[in-house]
Design brief:
Number of helices: 4
Helix content: 25-40%
Strand content: 15-25%
Distance between the termini: 17 Å
Largest sheet: 5 strands, mixed
Number of strands: 5
Shape: globular
Strand order of the largest sheet: 1-4-2-3-5
Length: 85
Amino acid sequence: MIRHTDIDEVALRREIRQRKILIGGNGKLRIYGKLDCRSGKRMKRENRVFFQSVDEAIETGFRPCGHCLKAKYKEWREGVVSKES
């Protein structure tokens, strides 16, 4: 997990282009989602975190976003955990 406040913009963009960062999340609410999620783009920088994979987000205790990952969120809410993206 990489906190947005711990990485500069140039390094962040490089990591995304190289596909080393695939998932974004809200560290305060413990929610992960797609990097282009409208909800994720509105969150405060100090709450934003990044992951290399869905597995990493789930292992860290994050749940799927109800906006950009509706099917995954529904599975999570019903108690079915799926680590595939």
